[in-house]
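PT: before anyone asks, these are the final sequences, not the draft ones from last week. 301 residues across everything. Please model them as a single complex and drop the result in this thread when it's through.
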Amino acid sequence: MIAFSRPFWPLFLHVLGAMTLVGAVLAVVIVSYVAWRRSDLAILARTAFWALVLVGIPSYVVMRVGAQWIYSKEGYSGNGDPTWIGIGLGAADFGLLLLIVTTALAFWWKRSAKPLAGRIVAGLSTVYLVLLAVAWLAMSGKWG
Amino acid sequence: MSTLQWLVMLHITAAFFLVGGSVAAGILNALSIRAERPSETAYLLRLIRVTLPVIGVGAAGTLIFGIWLWHEQRYGIGTFWIWASLVLWIATNALGAIGGKHQERARKLAEQLAAAGDASSAELRALLRDRQGNAMSWLAGATTLGILVLMIWKPGS
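LR: through. Structure below.
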């Protein structure tokens, strides 16, 4: 509909999904670190879990679908792709694993209220946030 | 990397801060409404403060690097989509500030209730679900989305 001449929708969905995903992971980082001091607050574990389930995972899907759509539309094939695309795809694939494991651990944290679970969620979500930052820097700066 | 690549990277990084911080604040706000006890509501609303520096850096960075890019890419002074984005940027900040004041009112009431037995009240529930107060935050989100549409679409260029 808008701007047939340039891939508006795939790029829009990719960027929107990525930015929303960063927001969801940031929320998880905040509540899981706060929980180190306030392990009595069950709301923090619930917030981490629902932020990942209701915002993080849907955002990942939107980001990844947009990425694949624009990848196909711009004629990349996997042979001789620019470095920044490799970094983005690598971050997306490894990030999916991190997202699933972090969500499973957030569920364990919510159910068990064990501080250890919250601490693992804090560590994993921090790693994921750093990975997302590397991906957006590489892709926006067209590294390589 | 060229100056242009650096500016684009910094501008987009600032946009990630602005949108990411706003989404995180929105998640904390939305879940505070569903919290069972006022102490939980107050705690989540207090945590929104952690996102404010992130949002602030993002808002400043998008503006500074955006204007720098405007000059660097030699877009005309009357470029519609840039002016429209600037208007939406101002609206986003104004609406976000109004929405933030509403959340602060809710947080103060939740803290009072938490200190007095931690039982919820009809007044707190009404304040948390107040359509006008929450509408400001939703509208701030909508105007941010509008900026993103304009930045990617660039109508007329």
